[in-house]
């Protein structure tokens, strides 16, 4: 129980009741400075949150809320290496990976920054040697292709960042295998020449069944082509579990470690980012780290009202706990960020999708949010119907670059920008029945028909959205944006008193899947032979039997 937090929530609820008497458009009409009052500019990043149904009193209560949940102290705890992941007794220090390398942070009395520095230098040497052909494949070829095998945090970040920074690629081509579905690895390796391919096995624990199984298949594929004895020349391991790598047989100088204080979904800044570095080079990767560090500084130092992650976090709390909006759409108007919503999905839902507080009690308020989304303008032609007219209100987060990398494509760019701005405007202003009738009649639709059609063509409006605008999708900006979202998730987690850094909710399914495997093994278990599968429930037995009968 946090009475001060509950009091802040009660105040926010009162403000919501008051605000409900006015639409957002009316709030804009009443305050000519609304955009300035409800936007934050930081360097070449702008957060416009003026199209949320709030006013200045809400921001004042946000400040109370920050005090009520001891936000500043909690931020400090994270940045100074306190073991805030209480169920795993670990520090949470992804911020160290992008920090000034001459600074220091102590974990268990040991300064971790020299290790961070050494790891970056080791990666730089290796990546440069691969990119300039000093390290060649077992057949003496330059590595033209790299496969990153990983899943969850060991896949989503590497893939999203690699794709986002395509204009900066001047290294080998990067491919991704994550799913255990054999079609995934099959399609990737079938398009590649093993003699010119480097395989990265990325797994924090080096036990994840999907990654280990895919890695074994990749090893087999490689061995068949270059010989078992040479396969190691084509493999790299990235993990915190160095003992397990040894069992796999990867050469010591091809092993890149990191640390248990880096969570999987926060690991893109560590050696898990190796495929990104191979693609864009170390200088660009350092810019990426720099951008994230700048956001860390902003988060640490700015007061609530001028602090992007805090405002974005409390807006999330406002939407979930006060307005009862249970989902959130991430809408990058930036095709290269098409994988960004999936990345944020893991970051947000694996961090805050929890119902037990850090004190071991049931949560008293809704926590977590269902995150989804896709790049605009494509998504306009799929799910925007629901955003505009559905019965569920979905706060939207638009993302837009002011500049593109492509020259001579102004027509495309202007259309992209116009669509992004138009969508957030449409969500806010809507269109009344009277307006629809007027427009239809002007177009020559008979009165009766206009009346019949109008309810279907009405837009409720008053739907909240924020826009993140940036100069250009370059490495530094991307680093900043990812760090912004990381800290936003942290702010929400602190408000709900969660441990945002464990993920026990993924374990049960993993365990049951391993039991289920025995049901598929016809040879070993006599219980399977009578099609009863031991203790399985009736639905599972039915499905197992149906699968058997469908199998060719
Ligand atoms: O299943 C969830 C999870 O543990 C994620 O948290 C993690 O990012 C992913 O699996 C992959 O784990 P690893 O990097 O250890 O293979």
From TrEMBL:
The keyword Transmembrane does not apply. SUPFAM superfamilies: SIS domain. GO terms for molecular function: carbohydrate derivative binding; glucose-6-phosphate isomerase activity; monosaccharide binding. The keyword Cytoplasm applies. Pathway: Carbohydrate degradation; glycolysis; D-glyceraldehyde 3-phosphate and glycerone phosphate from D-glucose: step 2/4; Carbohydrate biosynthesis; gluconeogenesis. Gene3D superfamilies: 1.10.1390.10, Glucose-6-phosphate isomerase like protein, domain 1. It is found in: Cytoplasm. It catalyses: alpha-D-glucose 6-phosphate = beta-D-fructose 6-phosphate. Keywords: Cytoplasm, Gluconeogenesis, Glycolysis, Isomerase. Its EC number is 5.3.1.9. Its main location: cytoplasm. The active site is at 350 (proton donor), 381, 510. Belongs to the GPI family. Catalyzes the reversible isomerization of glucose-6-phosphate to fructose-6-phosphate. This is Glucose-6-phosphate isomerase. It comes from Poseidonibacter ostreae. The gene is pgi.
